[in-house]
Each structure stands twice: as structure tokens, then as C-alpha cells.
Amino acid sequence: MKVEDIDNITLKYLDIDDYQELKDVMIEAYPTMGTYWKEGHIEKLLSIFPEGQVVVKINGELAGCALSIIVDYDKYDDAHTYRDITDNDTFNSHQQDGDVLYGIDVFIKPEFRGLRLGRRLYDYRKELCEKLNLKGIAFGGRIPNYHKYQDKLTPKEYIDKVRTKEITDPVLNFQISNDFYPTRVLKNYLKGDVHSNDYAVLLEWRNIYYEKASKKAASKKRVVRLGLVQWQMRPYKDTETFFEQCEFFISSLSGYRSDFALFPELFNAPLMGNDNHLSEADAIRSLAEYTEEIVEKFSGYAISYNINIISGSMPEMIDGVLYNVGYLCRRDGTVERYEKIHITPNEVKYWGMQGGNKIQVFDTDSGKVGILICYDSEFPELSRLLADQGMEILFVPFLTDTQNGYSRVRHCSQARAIENECYVAIAGSVGNLPNVHNMDIQYAQSMVFTPCDFAFPTNGVKAEATPNSEMILIADVDLDLLRELNEFGSVRNLKDRRTDLFELKKKVAK
Question: Is 187 among the catalytic positions?
């Protein structure tokens, strides 16, 4: 049929009244097999799973069909046959509470081939799989050109050559182009398929939106609101005034229903104002005495304002060693600690700080998050280790005094978003502290970065604050877009790594 002769194409549920036309189309579609579904088979499928049976019609004429059932996939061996999966064509294998949509048949009337009707049917199956929250789709795919090569190639060799475009197989090529991936060869899958020599390829498609049923009342959010505090460095007469300022920002972000509040690195530095008579090393150790109180206060704020707080970073003394650390204060009351791994030459020279050794991803009610403090963002190995643990959002609290230092953090953080297919939020401090040694001037522009692909901003910047102005920055990020990117992106930085040539792994901390 010519395109100009088409008035309309419709996708609709199969009806038993379509049976005679369906039978004729199937006989035309499989001329070498001489088989077709009996009317009783179609009636059974329609009675147990009407949503799974669809047809595509052109100008009212049946042009193609897709039949499917739901199965408990774990009950079947990877080497199953067509009769196994259909329970000898009775379809008693269908289970409404199963976890995989299994394709029983897809066929297109020969005169309508080339119009991408099969893609419409496959897209419907994918949407149905997502709607029913199933793990994925599976089916045994024919390899109708295999009989031409069966004396020269094993089925596996044949499939490999089809994938590398050395051999054309109309069915397998089409399925691979529709995001189905071969997982194994099925021997004696469909008796009578002489062109495939009774072989088939088990093809699967994974539903990236599948969510395992939770026994808890709470559910994890997929659209997450990030709140960033671009903090003004200013003197405080006492800790009470300091906490008032902290609570003001947390309250503001909570008022906008933010899921996270991110503070900058060493945002509590103004509390060193009264210790300016001390050396830099002694003053930072005096500041460390406030850390426990700040963590306790922030944990209380997280609960009372219903927001997860990332406390930037603060100095902390442990067994006589000075670290630069922060805390994740969840709104459920739990608290976790993270450490700055890479210490700048300045921190070593003036303060005698040492780097930590904890590299981990944190589970939250709003996704898996990683936290790297300032200089750590400039070491791509750290964020890649976090990405391997499933990180979806990377938070980078930072402290920079010049545009040079800020540019390093800014550009490295944006690179981390692209290469790890995640969101990255950076928050810094502005202003100056003339009465605090080694903390004189600050420069910052807080931002939220995204990967660079069609579902995201073209420049990879979701939101940006005004440079060097005290303010909050709020941005919504969709975690499901990251799943789509990982599977179907224009480029797939995580999947396409050449792990056959290199590997990255975390050493066990001593």
C-alpha cells in the first residue's frame, strides 16, 4: 500500500469479531509455517487479558496484531520452549499478578510491511508494561534467515553477525532496533519453524520505571525539589544569632516544599571571629567545638521542617586529628556523616587538616545521593565510584575565594553531571570576613547541573543563582529522566565504558 492511500491508522483492542480477518492475515504473514490461532485460542486470550491483545488497522482493514500474556518469569527456565510458556497453547500460564509481559505473537500483513506498524505494536507493549508496573517484556524471536547459514554458523555466531550488521535478519534486526536485547539462544523453541531451524532468540526489554512493591507506607519521590543556600559570610555576636540565620533559610526552603537544603562548605566560619587572636590552626580547632551542637540543631530542624539537610561542612576533631566533614540530617531523624577526601594545600598549610576515607552513597526518601566537598569534585574517580553505587544526585558544598577557584569547582561539577548521568547541585558562600584569618573574601554562584541530552536543558544548567548575592536557589529534578538517559540517551557514558580495557574500584580503608 502507498502512503498516499492511507486515510487513517488506528491502534485498538482486539475484538472477537475481528477473528476471521485475523486468521487470514496470520496465514498471509506465515506462509511457510501453515499455522494460525484457532478462534478458541483468541477467545481465551481476550477473556484472561484483554489489554494484552491489540491490532492495528489501516483504513479500517486489519494490518497487524500483537498477542501477549503475563507470566511469573522465575518459574521458567531460560531454556524454555514456546509450549512451556503458553502451557501447551492453553494460556493457563497467564498470571495476573506475574512480573513479566511475555509476547506470544506479533505479525504484520505483508502488503503493509515497511510502514513501521510493528513499532507501534511494540511501543504499546512497552507502555502497557510500564502501566502495569512489570519488570519487563520477553519473547522468543524467530531468526528466519538462519537456514541460509546453518551449515556455516552456529546460532550464536549468526546472532553476533546480525548485531554487527554483517548479516541481515529482518526480524532480529527490527527487534534490536526497538531496544530489545538478545539474552540467549533457545533450542527447539518453536517446532515447525524450518527457516529458523527450530531456534529462537530470547529477547528482553527492561522496564526502567519498575518499582518493587514496598511494605512501607512511604514511597520514594521521583520529582525532587532541591534547595540551595548561597550563604552570606557575616559576623555573628553569638551562636544564637547564627542559628537564627540557619533556621531562617531552612524555614524558607521548607516553605517551598523543598526535599533538600544544601549549605556551603565551612559555612560556620564566622564563629571564628572571636578567636582571631589565635593562630589559624588553633582557631579552626576552636571552631570544631561547635560541630556537635550544629549537627544536633540541624537534625532537629530536619525533623520539624520536614526537609533533608546537607550541612555543608565543618571542622571536626577525632582522636586528635582535624577533618573537614559534614552531615546528612534526614527528615526521619537519622543522621549520617561524610568526609572531605582531598585536602587542599591551603588547608594543610594553615590548618593541618587531613583527608577522610569514607566514600559512600546515601539512601534518602528522595533518591540516592552522593556528597563531595569542594576540591573532591575535581577528582572524577570519586563521583564515578558513587555513580557505580547508583547515585542520582551529587551535592557539592564548596568554599572559594576567587573566580579561578570557583571556575574549577563549577566546570568540574558540570563534567561530573555529564559523565555520571546524574544531577549535581553546588552551593557556596559569598561576602567577606575581615576579622577571620584565612577566610577573608568569598566568591560563589550556586548552580544545579544536568546531563546534556534532549530531556534536559541544552546547556546542562537547570538553575543558577545571582553571583555573589545572598539568596536561595530552588530547582526541581526528575529522577526518571536519568533512567531514560541511561537506557536510551544519545550517548550513554556509563554503559559505554570500555571496562574490557580498564577498571575503577574502591580500596578497603585501613
Answer: no
Please give, one letter per residue, the 3-state secondary structure of 253-310.
HHHCCCCEEECCECCCHHHHHHHCCCCHHHHHHHHHHHHHHHHHHHHHHHHHCCCEEE
DSSP code, position 129: H
Look at residues 439, 437, 446, 435 and name the one whose alpha carbon lies nearest to residue 470: 446
Catalytic residue among 57, 129, 265, 297: 265
- Give Cβ neighbours of residue 45 (< 8 Å, ≥ 6 apart): 14, 52, 53, 67, 69, 91, 104
**What is the reported pLDDT for 190?**
85
Nearest to 261 by CA among 304, 220, 312: 312
From 101, 123, 100, select the one nearest 174 (Cα to Cα): 123
What lies within 8 Å, CB to CB, of 44 at 6+ separation is 90, 91
pLDDT tens for 204-260 read: 999 988 888 766 655 567 899 999 999 999 988 899 999 999 999 999 999 999 999
Q: How far is CA 197 from the centre of its chain?
A: 40
Q: How far apart are CA 79 and CA 138, in angstroms?
A: 13
Q: Within 139-213, where are the H helices? A: 155-163, 170-177
Decide if 374 is catalytic.
yes
User: Per residue in 47-57, pLDDT tens?
Assistant: 999 999 999 99
374, 412, 422, 452: which one is catalytic?
Answer: 374
Helices 239-255 and 291-304: crossing angle, nearest 10°? 30
Please tell me which residue in 109, 340, 368, 462 is annotated as part of the active site.
340
What is the number of H-type helices and E-type strands within the chain? 13, 22
Which residues of the chain are modeled with pLDDT < 70? 1, 214-220, 438, 509-510
